[in-house]
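check these tokens.
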Amino acid sequence: MQKIEIKADQFFELLRLKDVSMWEIFAQMITENEKELIFLDHEDKILFNYILPDNKEKLEEDRKEFSKQFSDKLNHLN
């Protein structure tokens, strides 16, 4: 499995500037080999990681699950 380190601040700023979703970027990164995306803060501490699947169907399942969990967390804050 390939490990890819990503500076979270820069990554999300780029998404905002390009007006693109992270899922679109992830879809472009899919190959037959799985990748571990490691998101780092400005001090190179791990914020979170994500195992990028090797197909778009699984990516879509992950996107739906992420959206559901994110929505549930937002609802708990209100």
